[in-house]
Each structure stands twice: as C-alpha cells, then as structure tokens.
Design goal:
The chain has 139 residues and is an alpha+beta fold. It is 40% helix and 20% strand. The chain has a 4-stranded antiparallel sheet, with helices on both faces. The longest helix is centred in the C-terminal third of the chain and has 11 residues. The structure holds adenosine-5'-diphosphate and magnesium ion.
Length: 139
C-alpha cells in the first residue's frame, strides 16, 4: 500500500553535509520526496513536534538540538513508506543500528542520530500536517 511518512534530516546531519547521501538512500529505496524544505525550528516548534516525549528526561536537550540549526523536512511517499523508512534509518542508538543504515553511517549517539521518521500512520498524519499544508505536497 502506498503511504506517506514524515522524515527529518536533523541539524547534525545537515552540518556534516550528509543531505545528499540521505536523500539518495530514500530514492534508491523507492521513497519519493513529495514535499521538502530546509528550515530552522524555533524551540516552541520543536517542543510541539516532540510533544509525545514531553515527560522524558531528554526532552529539553532534544528540543534544543532540533532547533540548533537548519534541518530538512520531507514527506516521503511509497509502498510501506513508514516501515521502509524506519528500516533505512536503523535503531535510535547508532551504536545499535544495523549495517548500511543512515544512523550507522551518520549518527553520533542516541541523541544526535541524523534522522527522524514517523513510527505509525497516526503519527505520520500528525507530523506531515505539522509542517506541510496539502497544497505543498506533490503526490
Ligand atoms: P526514534 O527517533 O528512533 O523514533 P524516539 O521517538 O524514542 O526515537 O526518540 C526521539 C528522539 O529523541 C531520538 O531520535 C533521539 O534524537 C532522542 N532520544 C531518544 N532517546 C534518547 C535518550 N535516551 N537520550 C537522549 N536523546 C534521546
Ligand atoms: Mg520516534
């Protein structure tokens, strides 16, 4: 089933000039960017995006990181896009990420881990709507 997922190339990966490598991995896996922008989140925007993690001890640090510089926000479309992107990303902790994953290649640690990907159809719908109005998605 063709579906959509929200991906973010986080500020650490943008600083490392890994945008091209990461988008290449999406495209090679059949995930088509149907919306994309370079943007810098404010602290409140990052806090709203990660609201589900509000109670976690790393919440403040995570939102500080995500607003520390520009990131690339994309909507990816393809067969099983949510699961496929999670597989491309690898485990949250790059030290535990499988070979040939984005986090293995570009992540530094469990916080600075290069990319975000929606984890369910419900979060994908929320996350896509958080950053893109329908008229900016070219499916
Ligand atoms: P994922 O991004 O793999 O879905 P989570 O949703 O659990 O992982 O966490 C969201 C983000 O919060 C992670 O990608 C990472 O940047 C950060 N994070 C997760 N766990 C920790 C932790 N224990 N310490 C610091 N940062 C964390
Ligand atoms: Mg998550």
């Amino acid at each position: 089933m063709s579906e959509r997922t929200l991906a973010i190339i986080k500020p650490d990966a943008v600083k490392k000039q890994a945008i091209g490598d990461i988008i290449n991995r999406y495209e090679k896996a059949g995930l088509k960017p149907v919306a994309m922008k370079l943007m810098q989140m404010s602290m409140p925007v990052a806090e709203g995006f990660y609201a589900v993690h509000k109670a976690r001890p790393f919440f403040g640090s995570l939102c500080g990181f995500m607003s520390s510089g520009p990131c690339v926000v994309l909507v990816l479309q393809g067969e099983n896009a949510i699961k496929k992107n999670r597989e491309l990303m690898g485990a949250t902790d790059p030290a535990k990420a499988e070979a040939d994953t984005i986090r293995k290649a570009h992540g530094a640690n469990i916080e600075f881990n290069a990319v975000h990907g929606s984890d369910s159809p419900e979060t994908a719908a929320f996350e896509i709507g958080y950053f893109f109005p329908g008229m900016e998605i070219f499916g």
